[in-house]
Amino acid sequence: MKKLLLFILALTFALVIVGCDDPVVPEEYTLSVEAEVTTLKVGETITIFAETNKPDATFEWSSSDEEIAKVNQVGMVTGVGVGTATITVKVEDVGEEEVEITVTEKDMTTDEAKDLLMTILDEYLESTSGSLKITTNDEIGSMVSELVYNYNNDGEIESLMYKLVVDNDPDSERHVYVKDGYSYNLANKTKVKNELTAQEITSISTQYSQAAFLAEATKFYTEDAFYAALEFAGRGEGTVEFKLNLSKYEGEVFNTVGADEIKLVITLNNDKVTIVEIQKKVGSNTVSLVVEYKGSTTQTITYPSDLDSYEEQ
To answer: Rounded to a whole number, what is the largest CA-CA distance in the chain?
Structure first.
């Protein structure tokens, strides 16, 4: 009995000693990420670095929107489209981490700007229908001219409107309308109409063609010296801005004497030019020239209600 009691006590002591050893705790795995930057431009790439203490870990990368940003299996992110996407990295039995990436528009090159300007100019020069508006503003005042035209496939005028107004003064208006075989003209507050003879058609086609209308306002589109001195300045909401390096400009279109800044602003809608603006700053004054490309499909012209009062010549 004594031996049995001693055995039980020894066994109990041994169990207590074993129970006092520190328990073996499994190692806690962690996952961390670090990005070089979180904003990039379309076409640019950055790398997101992921780190874990789990041996032989496999990283699984994914993007919440691959139309904005794509990521490969080593964490390299490429900007695809403008917007924000979440890049996620996962490690099995460890967890996942996220990085929010913002993608902005890329810089535009001067060659790209030239292509945009020449494309829209050629479109309207070659179109049989179109609507154009040119506005100039300077320290003296403003002038607005508009041209709306429809030609048939033979190049004959079907309908046309040309209008010019100075300083929003109705009394300054000059216009020409073509409708139903007649031209209707307003100049110096005098209204006359003329039958569309061959001579009249030639005169109107020459004076009020889209080429004649755009000639002065678009002269810089084809000037190599302009693009050689043009520098990307940034993007706005639907716009791209460039500045002319005045010290480098050797062209003839712009007079840079006394100018503090000459800026080109291109407005785009679905990557197509809708407005081209030149801003020239001289001291506290800003002179602007704005060309609006309002459509090159068949146009509807609203005619004056008093065409019957125009005196026939």
So the answer is: 145
**Arch. (CATH architecture) of 110-312:** Clam (2.50)
First and final C-alpha spacing in the chain: 145
Identify whether the C-beta of residue 132 lies closer than 8 Å to the C-beta of residue 293: yes
Q: Where are the domains of the chain?
A: 31-104, 110-312
> Tens place of pLDDT for every residue, the chain, 313 residues?
555 444 454 545 444 445 455 555 557 999 999 998 999 999 999 999 999 999 999 999 999 999 999 999 999 999 999 999 999 999 999 999 999 999 999 999 999 999 999 999 999 999 999 999 999 998 889 999 999 999 999 889 999 999 999 998 989 999 999 999 999 999 999 999 999 999 999 999 999 999 999 999 999 999 999 999 999 999 998 999 999 999 999 999 999 999 999 999 999 999 999 999 999 999 999 999 999 999 999 999 999 999 999 999 8
Do 31-104 and 110-312 have matching folds?
Answer: no
Q: Which CATH code is given to the segment(s) 31-104?
A: 2.60.40.1080
Closest CA to 157 of 139, 134, 120, 130: 130
**Of the candidates 45, 120, 150, which has an alpha carbon nearest to the alpha carbon of residue 293?**
120
CA 121, chain centre distance (Å) = 17
How many of the other CB atoms lie within 10 Å of CB of 297? 10
pTM for the model stands at 0.80
